[in-house]
Amino acid sequence: MASARAFSVPRTTVVAITVLVIFMPIGLIFWQSLLNAPFFNPHHYGIDAYEFIFEDPDFWSSFGNSLVISAGMVLIALPLGAALAFLLTRTDLPAQRWIEVLVLIPVFVSPMVLAFGYVVAMGPVGFYSLWAKSLFGDVPWNIYSLASIAIIAGLTHVPHVYLYSSAALKSLGSDVEEAARVAGANPLQVALNVSLPMTMPALFYAAVLVFFLGFELFGLPLVLGDPEGHLVLSTYLFKLTNKLGTPSYHLMAAVAVCIVAVTFPLVLLQRWLLKTAGKYVSVKGKATRQKLLPLGGWKWVALGLVTLWLFFTIVVPLSGIALRAFVEQWGEGINLSEVLTLDNFRGVFDQPEQVRAIINTLVIGVIGGALAVACYTAIGLAGHRQRGGVARILDYIVLIPRAIPGLLAGLAFLWIFLFVPGLKELRNSIFSVWLAYTVVWLAYGMRLISSSLLQIGPELEESARTVGASGRRVLTDVTIPLIRFGLLASWLLVFMIFEREYSTGVYLLTQGTEVIGSMLVSLWGAGAIDQVAALSLINIALVAVGLAVALRFGVRLHED
Amino acid sequence: MKTESKRQLVVEDLHLSYGTNPILKGVSMTLHPGEVVALLGASGSGKTTLLRSVAGLEQPYQGKISIGDTVLYDSAAGVDLPVEKRSLGLVFQSYALWPHKTVFENVAYGLRLRGTSASEIETRVNEALRNLGLGALAARLPHQLSGGQQQRVAIARALVYNPPVVLMDEPLSNLDAKLREEARAWLRELIVRLHLSALVVTHDQTEAMAMADKILLLNAGRIEQQGTPEELYSRPQTQFTAEFMGSNNHLPGKVAQLVDGRAMLEGEGWRLWGMARGDLKQGDAATGIIRLERTQIANGASENRVRTELVTGMFLGDRRENLFKLGGLRLRCYGTTPASGECWLELPRDALWVFPAAA
After folding, report:
1. What is the pLDDT of residues A112-159, one digit of tens each?
2. A176 to B109: CB separation less than 8 angstroms, yes or no
């Protein structure tokens, strides 16, 4: 292909760098897992690390907890998400516009922040707990139990299911439903015999996604599982260091490989499901105006349930944080008006590393986000309109980072920066965090870019070629100008994702690489509740700014 | 006669609007049993809306729809039967086959909803599939079928529970041009063979004429003209109908004389007699319209002939089309042999309609 030749050098470079940044960390983890000691110490090959963790009962109990939590999340999020999608796309539920916006908030708020919010709102001495106690004489819940973790995780993952099922319901041509009505089916029969089976692939996809996210869960079980000692795989990995007191990198790597062994097949399954789901789209009808199902009096019941869910997943944790950020201390018998203060924020701004964390978080979101989008675009263009093997390889390898939880990716990048000659200088700069973030969110970013690229009809580029533009000129004169709004939207979304990210930076945290997310994990570990509250609120504010801009400019908040 | 009127579809003074935008402005029509009525019109004329209103998929605000004694919709009586209770057959333009059901299950669904026994479903679905030449495809999924096969499944699905009227929304528009002509003949044959009553929406006048016993030409939410295909084609009451139904030559001019329903149209260097249509007065601007196939090359000067000059000729396979120049006007006509130079064209006066020029 002529265009392939014209692009050979830049394309090869892009592909080579992509392969390198993806395979270096994952390769390092695999290699380390097969050593009997950290790779920078004297070592020999063997499966000692695996033997050790497989004999550790804690490993198996955390594996079991991960399974229970993931399954619980699917059981809670799937029916609720599907029902929410049905209510918002097919019925005359009131206040739909508002709900559609609010539903997305849990997706963009850091799980670490949410978890902290639940502790200060509903923990043993949380605001809501004490109010409940004054009403009922006792706190009727315990948020530190395994079931509570699963319920909270399930409820906060309802939006993921909602997004996929509502997209499926919206793309479902109304003609197939009308055909069933004409054939004699009442609305309920239409929903059960046509709409539900046709959205089944999307629901199944969402179920796999939620299960997968359950396995990756870190912030929620770290904060909520700690008091009663409930470990999941990611927190087990995180606590391994404390357990032995020495850097047990080989053990961590072995746990990491075990996690990837579960998540990678799930990622491949998701991809396969997405492809097979496309089969149903081939027989697509004309989109006519959808007649909304009148709920009658039930609409207030439905609205009440949705409001209750929104209250629990958004209002409770966020109001908890907002309150906690402005009080000196909180506990039983304390009068709210007497402890109001701005000291928590003064405390944050007095600490240079916390000020750096805020600045770094902004820099990594705004500038780093733009650079990441530029990288994703370069990779997207390298595979754009290419039919050869390179495009197919790119297509698959960008999925690999999706299977590696951020915590592990951060760890792998730490090793790379520590031990690859010439990179040590960069280790103490925000660049190391940016690189890890960019690789961790590669699959997400690529989907944003490719959905923009897919919207360009090939004939627009072909006509530029026929009037005499080279492959490079087509990119700069036609392709990139046409996707520029898509790129701006991607920048905004990547900004929010980078503001929210916390686990990837945990192992990279050192002087100079502080970001709010990893600072929260570290401060939480040190018990600095006041500063966690203040930083959490600042983090929420940053995400809220991104969300407000996105809503103002009508950016689609979901890549599908 | 009594059984006849039992299944007669009657639409009376139907009004429908989307918000403040009126789509149907009072449409009335009758479909007799065993008859095929075509709803013809340009896009936006309301033809599909009318069909969907009969099916119950659109919400009119005034009028009445009934089949025999069954009232489907009556604004005055507050009757609005839900879609599934109307028991009509509808063939969607996109076919709207359910992708997760096999061909057999697609067709059987209507019977299942009616509580038909399994053995009878088996018999009737297989009969319907055989009738449509789909016998061997029962176990396939829709995406494994060609466009033509999908269309036939959609028809089988709409017929299997013997609806009193079958509604078809552009049934042929998703087929290739070549396939479409064959499918047209096949569909007409099927309708006649099974004695179906069908209401067919189409935007193609040839299709409408070929398939229908009666055509309703819709224009901006009103019926412009209705009648047999011959009536609409050969005796159009309005310029819109004349234009819509065939290929024409246009002669803008002025009415010079009016004598018993005939008008003399006068232009630059020509005068022609034609049939006066609509409200014409002497001296009015008017347009002469004549079908291409009625315009003929003649061998010399005579009444209702004009002297023209050949611009170019096109070979179309079964005939030729010639383009002539008459001052600033262009006239087309068919012929079998190549024409050349100056020609006399005859525009027979009973084939030339003179319509008042649009205001």
Report:
1. 999 999 999 998 888 899 888 888 888 889 999 999 999 999 999 999
2. no
Residues B164 and B67: beta-carbon distance below 8 Å: yes
Residue environment code for B101-118, b if the CB has 16+ CB neighbours within 10 A, otherwise e: bbbbbbbbbbbbbeebee
**pTM score, two decimals?**
0.79
Asked whether the domain spanning A61-229+303-341 has the same topology as the one spanning A1-24+342-560, the reply is yes
Q: Which residue has the tokens 């760098």?
A: A17
Q: What is the pLDDT of residues B246-256, one digit of tens each?
A: 999 999 999 99
CATH architecture of B2-240: 3-Layer(aba) Sandwich (3.40)
- Angle at the Cα of B304 from the Cα atoms of B299 and B306, rounded to 5 degrees: 60
Q: Do A176 and B96 touch (CB under 8 A)?
A: yes
The answer to whether the Cβ–Cβ distance between A181 and B100 falls below 8 Å is no
Contact by Cβ (8 Å): B58, B49: yes
Q: How far is CA A5 from CA A11, A417, A476, in A?
A: 10, 35, 17
* Rounded Cα gap, residues A265 and A271, in angstroms: 10
The secondary structure of chain B in percent helix, strand, coil, rounded to multiples of 5, reads 30, 35, 35
Tokens describing residue B168: 């078809």
For residue A185, which phi and psi values (nearest 5 degrees)? -90, 140
Considering only CA atoms, which of B233, B229, B230, B236 is closest in space to residue B212? Answer: B229
Cβ atoms of A255 and A237 closer than 8 Å: yes
Closest-CA residue in chain B for A189? B113
The continuous run of DSSP H or E covering B41 comes out as none
Beta partners for B267?
B270
Q: Residue holding tokens 């850097």?
A: A247
Name the nearest CA neighbour of A252 among A517, A477, A22, A32.
Answer: A32
Return the CATH class of domain A1-24+342-560.
Answer: mainly alpha
Choice among A20-24, A553-557, B243-247, B280-284 with the minimum mean pLDDT: A553-557
- Of the candidates B54, B130, B168, B85, the one whose C-alpha atom is nearest the C-alpha of residue A183 is B85
Domain A61-229+303-341 has CATH 1.10.3720.10: yes
Beta strands in B69-151, from DSSP E residues, in sequence order: 70-74, 79-80, 89-91
pLDDT of residue A402: 83
**How many residues does this entry show for chain A?**
560
Is ipTM > 0.85 here? no
C-beta atoms of B84 and A186 within 8 A:
yes
Could you tell me which of B291, B56, B93, B95 has the C-alpha nearest to residue B202?
B93
In three-state secondary structure terms, A410 is: helix
* Of A251, A327, A282, nearest in space to A49 by CA: A251
In angstroms, what CA-CA distances link A449 with A378, A391, A460, A484, A501? 10, 14, 18, 10, 20
DSSP state of B292: G
Distance, in angstroms, between A552 CA and closest chain B CA?
27
Are A365 and A542 a contacting pair, CB within 8 Å?
Answer: yes
